[in-house]
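Archive maintenance. Older records in this collection stored only the sequence; we are now back-filling the structure field for every entry so that each record is complete. The fields below show one back-filled record exactly as it appears after the update. Entries are processed alphabetically, and THUMP domain-containing protein is next in the queue.

ARCHIVE ENTRY
Title: THUMP domain-containing protein
Organism field: Gloeophyllum trabeum
Length field: 271
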Amino acid sequence: MADKGKSSGRGDKRRRYRSDGTPIWGKRAIDGPGIWVTCVKGKEKQTVGELYDLFEALAEEMWPAQAHDGSDNDEMNDKADDLEAQIAKEMAAMKKPRKEQIFANCQTNTPCVIFISCKPPVDPIALVIKYVQDVVETGITRTKYTQRLTPVSGSCVANLPEICGLFKKVILPFFLDAGDKKYRYKIELRIRNHHTVSRDPLLAELAALVPEGHKVDLKSPEVFILVELFKSVCGMSVVKDYYRLQKFNVMEIANTKQEGADFTEGEGRVS
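Back-filled structure field:
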């Protein structure tokens, strides 16, 4: 029995490494593609609620087939006079698996900081840009306490090897797919509540991973590599028009569009 226990222990250790030799770290509370959000202090709970409403509405608009998949409950009232048929339908509905949530709030345990994870078919970048562009066009937010939204295409443990691995997975394909097009780019790195990885060495490591021909441009970049380090988690994505869209700060965009109107600090412009 003891030998089996030891063998199992060794097996567990082996399973903590991928086939390429890189370590597999423990499961994180914050994981996967998603959206980092900053909000008014003390209004985190309300912000999560308004984000669920907003994101679900946008998802239904942008990915309608998936958002409405399996929603045939309206037919349950048909043939109400046929009791047996009605009972059969209700039993079938009860046996159906519950529709999987595509958005989930991940606890950050930090004031003003929220992370909402996204599942397919949702693309967090497309979702954020759609919402931000709507605010730019109308000057009206559909949220009251939400400030800046930062989409990330993936997340990893915040150490240098894992960050470089994530970069190769979610950022590098953008440049490889560009063909002959050469981009001017800037790495927008934001570090919060993290003291392990230093800014300058990380920027140097990531810049070295960008294929030759693409150039760093701090003044007028065409694309932005967003890198978020928060506690033990790192997320990243590549976007365009980041400065034109005021760094995806919808409260700031609305304030700029409606300058001069009465506005209570921390309450945004809501439709």
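Update note: The radius of gyration is 23 Å. The chain is about 35% helix and 20% strand.
Entry marked complete.
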